[in-house]
């Protein structure tokens, strides 16, 4: 099984692209979209909401394969999500922070789908969410996370039509079936 880590800056449209790809691939048992746990009151598809207390207890018990903090929230990939039970699964897809790519690739190997967009488009999307102050949005745009060199990576620029980015994602995932 090959691990595919989806990462990119906030506002690049990762969740929308993942949601679209998961819909298109829902009947193909070779693809499994891992769910992550998050201490957020308004979970996105593919997320399991938990309280901070529950998250801390799960972390202490070793429940997670990987945890990270971002934007005052805690995220974790449960170990069972990293080991799907269906025998047909060949590609495991996980939405993660750029800050944990190196560690996950070192431990599990795999490939990165890096979804990004122009700073102008990212700002527009973050403002449209109405969840953050202008200062917080600016901080997110300026947040720089250096990616490890020589990553096995495919970049998807999500500045145009969402459907185009979804199709690029699906094509990238399907092409990884052949590179085993």
Short note summarizing the structure:
This is PhnN protein. The protein is of the alpha/beta class and 180 residues long. It is built from six helices and nine strands, in the order βαβββαβββαβααβα.
Measured by DSSP, the beta-strand proportion falls in 15-25%
Radius of gyration, rounded? 16 Å
Distance between the termini: 8 Å
Structural classification: alpha/beta
Q: How many strands, what sense, and barrel or not for the largest sheet?
A: 5 strands, parallel
| Overall pLDDT score | 90
Order of helices and strands: EHEEEHEEEHEHHEH
Strand order of the largest sheet: 2-7-1-8-9
- Give me the count of strands: 9
Protein name: PhnN protein
What report would you give on this structure?
The chain has 180 residues and is an alpha/beta fold. The chain is 36% helix and 24% strand. The chain has 6 helices and 9 strands. A 5-stranded parallel beta sheet has the order 2-7-1-8-9, with helices on both faces. A 4-stranded mixed beta sheet has the order 4-3-6-5, with helices on one face. A hairpin with a 2-residue loop joins β5 and β6. It is globular, with a radius of gyration of 16 Å. The termini are close together. 30% of the residues are buried. The mean pLDDT is 90.
